[in-house]
Amino acid sequence: MLDGHDRVTGRIPYVLNFEVPGMLVGRILRSPFAHARITAVDGSRAEQLPGVSTVLTRADFAPQTPIKGVYGRVFRDQRVVAAEKVRFVGEPVAAVAAVGEERADEALSLIKVEYEELPAVFDEEEALKPGSPLVHDPRPQLDPAFSSLVGNLSDAGNICSHFKLRHGDVERGFAEADFVFDDTFRSPAVQHVPLEPHVTVAHYANGKLTIWTSTQMPHAIRAQMASLFNLPLTRVRVITQTLGGGFGSKGSLRLEPITSFLAWKANRPVKITLRREEEFVTVCKHPATIHLKTGVMKDGILVARQVRALFNTGAYTDIGPIVARNAGSAMSGPYRTPHVRIDSYAVWTNVVPAGALRGFGVPQAVWAYESQMDMIAERLGLDPVEFRRKNIVRDGDHYATGEKLEGVHYEELLRRAAASVNWAPEEAYWRKKSFAGSMSASQKKVHRGKAVTLVIKATITPSTSTAVLKLNADGSLNVLTSSVEIGQGAKTVLAQIASDAAQIPLEKVLVSEPDTDLTPYDQQTSSSRTTFSMGSAVVLAAKDLTRKLMDLAGEFMEVSADDLTLREGKVEVRGVPERSLGYADILRRACRGDLIGEGAFTTQGGLDLETGQGIGSVHWHQAAAACEVEVDTETGKVMVLRFHPSVFAGRVVNPRLCELQTEGSTFFGLGQALFEEMMYDDNGQVVNRTLGDYMIPSFEDGPLELRVTLLEHEGAGEIHGIGETSLPPVMPAIANAIYNAVGVRIKDLPITPEKILRGLKEKNIAEVQHF
Amino acid sequence: MRQIVKLKVNGLEKEVAVEVYQTLLEVIREEFKLFGAREGCGIGMCGACTVLADGKPISSCLMLASLAEGKDLVTIEGLADGGTLHPIQQAFIDENAFQCSYCTPGFILTTKTLLEENPAPSAEEVRAYLAGNLCRCGSYVKIQQAVLNAAARLRGAAVR
C-alpha cells in the first residue's frame, strides 16, 4: 500500500485521533429493556452537575419544535433519542456532553428514566405468529424512494418487507422432480468487530454542521443529516479519514445524529467514541432462518427451488429490506434451476438492529444452499463436486432473475477448487471405507474431511461513482474521490488506476480523503464496488483530462489531437517521440494553474418487487472455496488444516491486495463458521459484549495453510470486486468438510464443539440401534 | 485524585498529572499525543494497545499510568531510528502485512520481543507468540511471512 509507512509507524490519522479545540466528550444512556413505554425522562439533575454542558432527551424533539429527530433510510423509524418507546436493550434514550468521560458517565447516572415494560419478541419466526407483540404500531413512515423495495404491506404485523422472486412454475417443478428435499438452516447475529470503534466528532457553528466520522458513506450521511437538521446540502460537511475496519457496520447513520444534536445544543464540538460493549448493541449481521425446498431428478439435475427466508432486522429497519432482497435474488445459487419461487422477508423484532455485514445477506443464503447441496448429493449417491458441475450456470444461461449471464467461470473455479484439496469422490463421508463399519467402531480419535463450495453474489446495481482528477502545474495529480480507505487499499488501487490511465508516475499521484465539501459524489464504499465502480469513474475522468491536454498540446504543436498519444507525463506526436510536450509545459503555456477532468460511472438495473425479475447485478461475483478440516471426536474441536479460496477477479489491479481481501474473507468466515455468535439472555440483552466472551479469529484459529487463487479474464477485461466474494462459501465449506470427516450435519451456525459432540453422540446411538 | 508521575516514553522523560484511575494507554494518547497505541477492546484481549515496558509487550489499557513510573516505555513511534524504519517495520511493508492497520503497531512491537527471545522462530512459534494480537481484517498469512522475513533480516544483520 502507498500509505504503508504511516501504517507501520502508527501515524494513520483515524477519526479516533481527531480533536477540535474546546471539544466535549459525549456519552449515551441506553435502554435496559427490550420493549417498554417511557413514562418519564428527567435530565435536570445531570444538567446541574459541574462540567456538564448539555443533556439531550426527547424533550428536545417535542412535537411543536421544527426538528423532528426522526430518521431511517427505508422507514423513518429511528429517533435520535427514544421518545414514547424503546424497542431493544441498548437503544439510546438520552445523551450528555461534558468536559471529560468520567464526568459524562457520572451525569448519565443522574438521568432519571421511568419505564413501563411491554411484552417483547426476539425470534423471527415467533414475530410472525398471530398475537405476537408488535414492534412498530402503527407502521412507520416509508421513504417514498424505497416504496418499490417494501411493497404495500399495510396490515403485515412485524413483516418489514417482502421480496418475491417468481421464475417458472415451482409447483410443476416439484411434481416433475424425482425427489424433494426440505431443510431449514439458521445463522445467528454476528458482530462486525472493526478494531476501530465507531467515532464521530461534530461541530455546529455559523449555521453549518461539520462532522468528522468513521463512515463508509460520507455522501449518504451528509444527505440524511441535512434532512434531520432541515439544512441544504451545502450546510453539512462530512469528512472521513482512513478507517480501522468497518465490514459494513459503518454504513448507515450511527453516531452522527446524536453527536451532532449534542454539539448543536451545547454550541461546542462534541466527540463520541463507542466502547466495545456499545458496538454490540449498535448493529450486527441479520440472524436468519431459511427454509429451503429443492426438487431434483434422480440423475442429479435440479428442477425446482422454493425458499422462505426470514431476516431478523431487529428493532429498526436500517437497510434490512435491501439485505433480504439481495439474499433472496440469488438463492438459487450458481445453478440452473428452471422453477424458482422465493419469498424473502425482513422482520422486526426487539433485538439489536441488524444492518449490512460483509456479504450483505448472501452468507446466510449460501450457508443454506451449499449445505443442502452436499446433503442432496449424499441422498442421491452422487459425488458432491460432480453434482455441482452438472448444474452450474454457464454462459448464455438465463438466471432466476431473468437476466442473461455472460462471463461465467464456475467450471474453471470448481475444477481449481477441487484440485486444490485433491478432491476425489471417495472424500464424501458415505463413500469412505470407515463408513461401512460405522464411526464408533473406528479406533481413530481424529478424523479428516474435505469439501468444495460455490457462491454467486450481486454487486449493488444501479450505482454511481464520480471522480475528479486535478492535474497540477508541476504535472502531479490529485485524485478527488469520496471512496473510503477502509483497509482494502482503495487509495492505492485508485492511484494505480489513475497513474495508468493518465500516464502520470505513481509517486506523483495522490488520492484524497473524502470530504463532501470538496470531493464528488460516491454512493458508498461497500458491496465490493470501489475498484470496479470508482476505478471506472477515475478512468473516465482521466480520459476527460487527457483529452483536454491533447487539445491544448495539439494547438501548441499545430497538429491534430487525433495524431497525439500519451506517454509518461507527456503528450507526443504518434510515431515521432521527439516531438512532445510535458504536462507541466502544457499547463504553463496555457496559463493554467491546474486542469480538471471529471468522470461519472453509473450502472443501470434493478429487480421488480413482485417477481424478482430484472437486472440484479451489473455483473455477478463468482468464487469457490475448498478446505480440509480435522475433527477431534473426543473434544469436538475443529482445526482447519488448509483452505483454498478461488475467486474470479476479472482483471487484477493489485495482486497483493486481492490476496489480502480474500484471505481476510476466509478468516472472517472461519469465525462465523466455528464460534462467532451474539448470545441473548431471556430479556433480550446481549450477554457476550466484550472480546473476552465474544471470540474473533486469532493466529491460532486460522488454517495452517491458506492459498488464494485469483482467476482473471483473458486480456484487458472488466474489474470484478473481490472484497466479499469469497466469504459466503467459507461457512458451508467448513460444515461440509466436518460432515465428511465425522458424519455430523450441523444446520445452525456456529459449529461449536458442543454441537459436534452432541451430533456424534446421537449418531452413535442411532448406529447402535440400527445394528 | 490526581498525582504527578514521571513517565519515560521513547527515551523522553516527562512529568504528567494523572488521575489515579487513568490507564497508561489514556495517558500515552492524551498527554503524550502518541496515537500508535489504540484501544480495541479495553480489557487486554486484542493487543491493539500494546507498548513495550522494559522490553516486554504489555496491554497499556490494563496498566494504570501511575504504576508505569520507572519503566522504560517504547511505543511504535519510538521504534524507527530517525528516518530509518526498524527492519520489522520494513518487513511488514515489504509483505504488505496489514489492511486497516489498526492492529499493526501491536503486532510489530510484540514481534520485536519475540525475535529478541527467539531469533529463528518456526511458523508455529510465530503463531503461538502472536496469538494475543488480533487482526480483524485477517492479514495473518502475510503477518506470519513478515515476521519470518524480519527474523531472517535481523539474523543476517547480526552475522554481518
Task: Give an overview in words.
Chain A is of the alpha+beta class. Chain A is built from 19 helices and 33 strands. Chain A has 3 domains: 4-120 and 192-279, Aldehyde Oxidoreductase, domain 3 (Alpha-Beta Complex), CATH 3.90.1170.50; 288-459 and 610-770, Aldehyde Oxidoreductase, domain 4 (2-Layer Sandwich), CATH 3.30.365.10; 463-603, Aldehyde Oxidoreductase, domain 4. A 7-stranded mixed sheet of chain A has the order 3-8-1-16-13-14-15, sandwiched between helices. Chain A has a 5-stranded mixed sheet with strand order 11-19-18-17-12, sandwiched between helices. In chain A, strands 20, 30, 31, 32 and 33 form a 5-stranded mixed sheet that branches. The mean pLDDT of chain A is 96. Chain B folds into 2 domains: 2-77, Roll (Ubiquitin-like (UB roll)), CATH 3.10.20.30; 87-159, [2Fe-2S]-binding domain (DNA polymerase, domain 1, Orthogonal Bundle). Helices cover 36% and strands 17% of the residues of chain B. Chain B is built from 5 helices and 5 strands, in the order ββαβββαααα. In chain B, helix 2 crosses helix 5 (140-159) and helix 3 crosses helix 5 (140-159). The N and C termini of chain B lie far apart (53 Å). The mean pLDDT of chain B is 96. Classes of the chains: A alpha+beta (771), B alpha+beta (160). Chains A and B meet through helix 1 and helix 17 of A and helix 2, helix 3, helix 4 and helix 5 of B.
The number of distinct structural domains of chain B comes to 2
Strand order of the largest sheet of chain B: 2-1-5-3-4
What is the CATH homologous superfamily assignment of the largest domain in chain B? Beta-grasp domain
> Radius of gyration of chain A, Cα only, in angstroms?
28 Å
First-to-last CA distance of chain A: 61 Å
Tally of alpha and pi helices of chain A: 19
CATH architectural designation of the largest domain in chain A:
2-Layer Sandwich
Query: Which value, in Å, is the CA radius of gyration of chain B?
Result: 16 Å
The ordered H/E elements of chain B are EEHEEEHHHH
Percent range of helical residues of chain A = 25-40%
Compute the number of strand runs of chain B: 5
- Determine the N-to-C terminus distance of chain B: 53 Å
